[in-house]
């Protein structure tokens, strides 16, 4: 009689970042990551063929509000962008499987959506470079703690995200990118508080880039009721839309680069983020300015 | 008989950065700094009352293309923004006198232009914070070395600079800033070379933010023949305008903030830069990416 097959022992508490990643690796966690491992930073992933890595790095550095860079690396090894930034992951990891779901692009077009493993597409360590980019989940916790519940959290849906006409600073092959923004409605007289609360989250898009009804036209948004990504949310009497830089921006830049990009680009599927081992407060400690 | 009064001994070669600063300190160098101490980085200066320093710092970090931060500090002491950036000044200095000419702003309005010393306005070390911001002089040398002489250098005039409608990412009190751009015309078929040559100068505005005739309207520039700053230059048949982020942007942001800024803001006078002790190649060595 053969010995019983043992499941790998998950040496992590159930809702720890490490546990979420292990379950994702095993294909057992395939849902969005909002609400998992609360207090830990979650990150957007973008993986580009090595030939475009320098241009994409430059795109992030030139557009830190929509594309705040947290780390760069291979599938199993990451480097922080500054010597004082803490490592995002403190256990062995594999970016090809540790995220619940992925999107895949070829020549700027989405060719696979929501797959749970990209190991076969990213088989060689040298072929691609991974970029991890900050996410607004972090500052939403701070808004909630201040009694400024984001509407989509209240409604139990995804945040509303819009393509805009606001240009990114071009970088190499990425000449035609524009900001993607997330929108949360707030009463006009709370906008300054909302700005103050989200401002310190510099590596997670920071304070809004625009607010008020006049910003809708200025950003080239045709219809607030029809977001390009996520779900439309109600805007109540006396509220105004408030817009933040959004981590979907880099995927949008890949799409706009079209067939200038040869090879396979991979990314997390929206809402299905990399759950990191860094606590928000730990990250802020390292973000202290010289002032 | 009293002993003869001795002039201070300038222990610096005539065209060294240190010599230029010492002569400026003595009121003997009051002209623009272009062409002085070639190969050394020159920097824009912006000095804000301490109450606005955090917001201004955030403005720079959120808009690194027009406002690339080289150092922050007091009149006599500077801190580099990253641990690997070399110190800008390696001799004792005083930012209140070591620049040939200064501008002064109150409530967003220019109240003094071209004065040679601001020691009386910035008498207390704690009252203000200084920001040093990269300048496009550096990449102009690289363009010239590649046979792509900027037109204004050829014409012996100042570079053409324009206010645009392209918004800065807002930061605290600085909500209404827009890009100021510098413009150099180049043949359409040289634009990619020009982009490639200036791209590595990340701390000096890097590659252009826009180019071609369609960019003129897109940036909201009414008349290329009437730059808001500097001098108009000829655009020849077959050439297109190429636009870069410009270090006048922060002064423009101060003006647009208007009477939201209480107290005295000081800056270098356009073209009259801080000549630093850092060689361009030395700076690039420290800018190596992790890729």
Automatic annotation (TrEMBL), chains A, B:
InterPro entries for this protein: D-Glu_cyclase, Putative_hydro-lyase, UPF0317
Biological process according to GO: glutamate metabolic process
Keyword terms: Lyase
Position of the signal peptide: none
Single GO molecular function: D-glutamate cyclase activity
PANTHER family: D-GLUTAMATE CYCLASE, MITOCHONDRIAL
UniProt family annotation: Belongs to the D-glutamate cyclase family.
Protein name: DUF1445 domain protein
